[in-house]
Amino acid sequence: MDRFEKRAMALALSLVMMFFGLVVYAAKGLQADLPTCLPNARLFERGRVVEIGPNRYQVDVVAYMWGFDMGTVNQIKLPRGAVVDFYITSRDVMHGYHIDKTLVNLMAIPGAVTYSRVKFDRAGEYQIICHEYCGLGHQNMAGQVIVE
Amino acid sequence: MQITGDYLKSVAVGSAQDRSGDAAQATGAIRFILLSELIVPFLLLILGVLLGLYQVLARAGIIRSAEIFGINYYQGLTLHGVINAIVFTTFFAVAFGNAIMLHQLKRPLKVGVQWASWLLMVGGTLMAAWAMLTGRATVLYTFYLPMVAHWTFYVGATLLLIGSILPYFLDWIPNTLAWRRENPNAKPPLAVLGNLVNFTLWFLIILPLATTVLFQMLPLSLGLASEVNPLLSRTLFWFFGHALVYFWLLPSYIMLYTMLPKLAGGKLYSDPAARLAFLLFLLFSIPVGLHHQYTEGGLSSGWKLWHAFLTFMVALPSFITAFTVAASLEHGARQNGGQGLFSWWSKLPYWSREGDKWLFAYFISGLILFLFGGITGIINASYNLNLVVHNTAWIVGHFHTTVGGLVTLSFLGMTLYLIACLRGVDVKAKPFALAAPYLWMLGFVIFEVALSITGLQGAPRRSNIGISYLDPSNELLYRGDWLFWSHVGALGGAIAVVGFLAYVVSLVGTLFAKPVRAPAIDFPIADALHDTPTPLVVNLRPWVTATLALIAISYTYPVYESMTRGVITKVPGYQSHENNLVPQQTLREQTKLP
Known about the structure:
A: alpha+beta; Immunoglobulin-like; 2 domains; 18% helix; B: mainly alpha; Cytochrome C Oxidase, Chain A; two-stranded antiparallel ribbon
């Protein structure tokens, strides 16, 4: 093979490896990791918000056509600085659960539980958007996290 | 002047052969089959593109309605995805594969095989189209369970896939083996290798898809089962789903490697590098599906990271292609008198009406779009970075510069080229044919930038946001901050549609033009500048073995996890055509906050 070609390939390989290295560093070093398999997660049928410690919350979300059951429908209130564990599943078809301005971006899959943790540092309203097609009411499936 | 048909034919054959010594004949049934494999999906594509226009307008709140001409937004979105990304691409890949094999190996295709393939593909498409058009399969192009479509949708899709694989097994492999027996010391032509790689890939990924369609979806749809494991189905779908994009891409790469250099006026920079790129695609393009499942539970993040790693590896052959194609373009430009470090760019046939050179415009526009697609693709693949963009409008921007960019443009250009060949006519309305790809490119650059921004602002994909988030009267959901860039996106989409209409003008003209020569398939195939013998890239077999091993390593545990963690749930029976009965007003009520 021609020497320019060899250089181009070596450069491309180093580039993708550098990207991958940074991804691993962000995931494991900076703890920006993905939802993983939760072998012991119990399936739940009702949504709820539980205070599990000082400013620590667990939110169980059941997505359905077309809303989010989080104990209350579509809306929860949390104090500023709350560290929240979201557990989400679906009662019918696939749904999405994306909390705007955060890294909470989850799929709600019937029969499986997905998990994400987030800290709400700023007060305000965070829109929750269903971002997986779930039938004709999909565009209206949204909620709110109100941080006070 | 009266000239008999036979005389005209003999003159025309003579002139076709003068033009190039290696044109391949395509007559009778084979010619009809190839032509209709190009025209049938094109007719559907017109509907698919117009529905795309409706979607950008709806998403910008310019058209604020749940449906247009009786087609619901999501029904239209299903048609848009299935027609543009499955039907059009699959038909084209088969027609193009047939033409390449015929032209490169000079061996006839079997009429029986081709008819069987044609009947299955056309029949399957009609079944699925009926289901979609009558609102019985509003499940989008990913048809995730537990949403269920009418059984004709699944059976139709399966028939299309079976039909598309028949020529590979019954025509192309036997013809290649026969060619090798006759030419024991030659390596198969590059285009043949690319085509065989593509359909080997296709065959391997049809298997997991067929598994979920036949054993999970069809029984549910027919009412034979009431329970299903949706996570397993999703994992099997993405086992197929990402390699699918390489099935779209590889015919484009075949054109970039074998035809673009010749159109540019030069040679392919390196033959072994091109072969290596194809074989690396075979190896790495399947075990990457988990990168579509980053945000779901039930699958361990360690395996997601492994698939992320392999996704970065599959970027490698695209980088190689970027280098080889750029080097080939530079070589061509220098043959045309190009000079300097960068100014050789000006010596390429961007707007040439001479002979086949108009095709260059399709490739170069596609390549420019693909730069955006490649960069955004690497971002999407980046594991945790994906959390920012997953299922937002960003993703839509991304794939409209890949499958909607390079793939569609090269397929459209080649469709026009092949129709002209198979009808024995010159391409008509060439200025229109030339303007089309540039307008399309301009439109989709604008579209991509706009959708990337709205995506980062949080706008979801696959959603009729015009009647919710972009409706000012909806106090709960209204997101005025998405409005501006959604409008820009609509502008981009509209420009692209104008480009498509220009293409339609040229295509229809070509379709009804009077034949001036005998039909013959002739591709502008470039020679290679560098072609040192590289045994590693000649034989497909060791690469297929390595591919199977890598798939086994990467997918055994995730599939096992999906089977055990993804609990089997009762399907609530949300048949998509039943959803159509729910009036919009009720939906609004249901989503009101307490």
